[in-house]
Write a structure and sequence with these properties.
The structure is a single chain. The chain has 20 helices and no strands. The protein is mostly helical. Helix 12 crosses helix 15. The longest helix is centred in the C-terminal third of the chain and has 34 residues. Bound molecules: tryptophan. Tryptophan (TRP) binds next to helix 1, helix 2, helix 5, helix 11 and helix 15.
């Protein structure tokens, strides 16, 4: 298959893809969403399921997405159309690309609001607006920041403008350059905060909360939430990773890069947990206080540490940059598609999408003030965007990707693209054909209550073991025929 990507659209350095994909996956999901979800779903049990989902579903699906992107060299819609044509399969699978683009757009619409929180806290930090001495005081600052739609709208608009400006600049100038310094910086900040947390007096309580496994806390909803978050945090099923994969040079290993991105992403999330929960317990805060969790807890910690003011400013700066490198990846798929299939220049495509994004994200922003009562089935618009994408669109997209890569495409096509040693390839194929689809379907059914109280996850394990045996038998038969 001929590569359609022109050289200017390939990552420059050897680390270009890893940096950009890590920049995409490490974001508000790790530092904002992971801690507050862990708090809401009760700690260790949620964390364990989340880690399992990353390893068993996230990593294989990510490899499939990168392989699809590189094989098809284009936006999700175009890339999937090409790979299905190559395998002589229905072009309707490109609907998966449409769904991914829609999902990325919906995520971005609430993501810029949260990123706006980060930027406004950066501003407050510089101008001394975060001076409260109790959890209640910090909570009051957070609510006041949300209450005025002009204020909140200003910050989310700023994020929208910055995102579009960077994406308009293109892959190397815009995306690759901005992530090069930000990832190391973020890790350094987190280490500083963990060291502080070590002396806060409640480090043990934080560690216990994050890692103590209490299966009694695992509901079907919690498992679905953990799975959805595994997709979210790795930027899967929304076009981002697939499109970045389209810019991956042919000689780089998909398996190794995927592992690197997944490990970095997981480490940052766990580090964020270790930095945040000790502070929460030391100050008698409720870990289940929802989306405002980090904005109410961390500024309190900063005030108590030496040089706290400077650390605070740098932290919110890093959070802002982490949010931006993720935001640009969510819109890259759509911009690449408009650019490639409709001949729009990158700049025009970026601004066109940006205007639409501004309208939808403003509606999401209003959920925190004027539109707080505009609820449907108990959720406001902001919550719906999050709920629909994390609980439905991403798991469904992951399921679609797994079926496409595992069953629909000709086996050799992705095998060649992945270029894995044969034992590793067999493992990947087993994961993508059986583990991912079965796990996703069962998590869905369980969350819907369709499996009933008698359902036991050991059944899933048993089915998977049987599938593994069958797969090995089939592979061996093929091997014998082929050889
Ligand atoms: N992974 C990012 C985070 O954790 C969010 C993100 C970036 C994303 N691009 C995405 C989520 C695409 C879903 C789809 O903050």
């Amino acid at each position: 298959m001929t590569a359609i990507a022109s050289p200017k659209n390939l990552w420059l350095g050897r680390w270009g893809f890893v940096l950009a994909a890590t920049g995409s996956s490490v974001g508000l999901g790790n530092i904002w969403k992971f801690p507050y979800m862990t708090g809401e779903y009760g700690g260790g049990a949620f964390v364990l399921v989340y880690l399992l989902c990353i390893a068993a579903i996230g990593v294989p699906v990510m490899m499939a997405e990168i392989a699809l992107g590189r094989r098809g060299r284009g936006s999700p819609i175009d890339a999937i159309r090409r790979v299905t044509r190559e395998s002589g399969r229905s072009r309707w699978w490109s609907g998966l690309g449409w769904m991914a683009m829609l999902c990325g757009f919906m995520i971005l619409s609430f993501y810029v609001v949260v990123a706006g929180w980060a930027v406004s806290y950066l501003w407050k930090s510089v101008t001394g607006g975060l001076a409260a001495h109790s959890v209640e005081g910090m909570a009051a600052i957070f609510s006041a920041n949300n209450a005025n739609p002009w204020n909140l709208g200003f910050w989310s608009t700023l994020v929208t403008l910055a995102t579009m400006a960077i994406v308009g600049l293109g892959v190397q100038a815009g995306i690759e350059r901005s992530v090069r310094w930000m990832m190391p910086g973020l890790v350094v900040m987190l280490v500083v905060m963990i060291v502080y947390a070590l002396f806060s007096g409640s480090f043990g309580a934080g560690v216990h909360f994050l890692f103590a496994f209490d299966p009694g806390k695992l509901t079907g909803q919690a498992v679905l939430a953990a799975m959805g978050h595994a997709f979210f945090t790795l930027s899967l099923a929304s076009g981002a990773i697939l499109t970045y994969g389209a810019y991956l040079p042919a000689d780089q290993s998909i398996g190794r890069t995927t592992l690197m991105v997944a490990i970095c992403d997981t480490l940052v999330a766990l580090m964020a947990g270790l930095a945040i929960f000790p502070v929460i317990f030391a100050n008698g805060m409720d870990p289940a206080s929802g989306p405002g969790l980090i904005f109410m807890s961390l500024p309190l910690a900063f005030q108590q540490m030496p040089l706290g003011g400077a650390v605070e400013t740098i932290f919110f700066l890093m959070l802002t940059v982490a949010a931006l490198t993720s935001a640009i990846s969510m819109i890259e798929a759509t911009v690449a598609w408009l650019n490639e299939s409709h001949g729009l220049s990158r700049v025009r495509a970026a601004w066109g999408v940006g205007i639409l994004l501004w309208v939808v994200s403003t509606l999401a922003m209003l959920s925190f003030n004027v539109g707080a009562d505009w609820k449907l089935a108990g959720r406001h618009f902001f919550d719906w965007l999050d709920f629909l994408t994390s609980r439905f669109l991403m798991p469904l997209g992951g399921l679609g990707t797994a079926l496409l890569a595992g069953f629909v495409l000709r086996g050799e096509s992705l095998k060649e693209e992945l270029g894995l040693p044969s034992a590793v390839h067999a493992l990947w194929r087993f994961a993508i054909r059986y583990v991912c689809p079965l796990a996703i379907v069962m998590v869905f059914l369980d969350a819907l209550g369709a499996l009933g109280a008698a359902f036991d996850w050991r059944w899933l394990a048993a089915v998977l073991v049987l599938a593994l045996i069958a797969e090995v038998a089939i592979l061996r038969r093929h091997g014998r025929q082929g050889g």
